[in-house]
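Tokens as discussed.
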């Protein structure tokens, strides 16, 4: 998924157009419509990890996003290349969206959003849902030194559960090398009350996860950016429980290093 890298928004751009030689009616200033753009981002990952759970091996994860002012709408996909998880990530197609509301200029924004997770080949008999829907809301706080902190809450309406997540991001410019390093960190916890499809009794799934990563973006052209990154992510205390049976450990909740190579093309 998804990743959760998954939720980006463009800032709005307004211009005032006026003519100095027009008459009074024509000279009234008018706000222009927000700028719009498309961004296509083909991405390769060495492991498909989501919230500390390994969903597969190497995968091609292209995305396309439309940005207009504070609104962002897109589709993120995952196409496994190896170590496929039958019925879950082969393939995955996730429409998503968000809207950014500025609360304090250049400092604080509120960002409601959603992701519709779809698994076209999911097999209900194996416990997989074909579709789940997860609204979210995030508060983005940017400090005076450029560090960004984002507490975020997700509520999956199909899995009947909540995810609490805190992310931090900080960019360092290495002027001598003419490059930038983007550091990220994430910690989260979740609990789903109805985690598996087609069970006689509801199956719960809960756990914790964390991620630490660094990425280096490189401008290829004015509208094209190549990013190479590495992150280590791990799932901990991840359990499933069906009805009154004892809880069992989720063997897919593991620690893995993930290499990411992406190329964002805007037009």
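Sequence:
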């Amino acid at each position: 998924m998804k990743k959760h890298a998954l939720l980006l928004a463009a800032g709005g751009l307004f211009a005032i157009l006026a003519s100095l030689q027009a008459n009074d009616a024509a000279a009234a200033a008018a706000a222009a419509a927000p700028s719009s753009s498309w961004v296509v981002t083909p991405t390769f990952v060495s492991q498909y990890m989501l919230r500390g759970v390994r969903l597969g091996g190497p995968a091609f994860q292209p995305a396309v996003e439309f940005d207009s002012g504070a609104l962002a709408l897109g589709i993120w996909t995952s196409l496994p290349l190896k170590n496929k998880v039958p019925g879950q990530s082969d393939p995955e197609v996730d429409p998503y969206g968000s809207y950014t509301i500025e609360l304090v200029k250049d400092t604080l924004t509120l960002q409601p959003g959603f992701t519709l997770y779809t698994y076209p080949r999911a097999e209900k008999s194996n416990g997989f849902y074909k579709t789940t829907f997860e609204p979210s809301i995030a508060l983005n706080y940017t400090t005076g030194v450029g560090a960004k902190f984002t507490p975020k809450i997700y509520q999956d309406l199909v899995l009947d559960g909540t995810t609490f997540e805190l992310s931090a991001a900080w960019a360092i410019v290495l002027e001598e090398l003419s490059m930038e390093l983007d550091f990220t960190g994430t910690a989260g916890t979740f609990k789903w009350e109805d985690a598996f499809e087609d069970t006689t009794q509801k199956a719960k799934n809960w756990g914790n996860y964390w991620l630490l990563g660094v990425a280096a973006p490189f401008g290829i052209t004015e509208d094209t950016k190549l990013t190479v990154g590495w992150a280590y992510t791990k799932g901990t205390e991840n359990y499933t429980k069906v009805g009154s049976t004892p809880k069992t450990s989720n063997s897919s909740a593991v620690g893995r290093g993930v290499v990411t190579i992406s190329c964002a093309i805007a037009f």
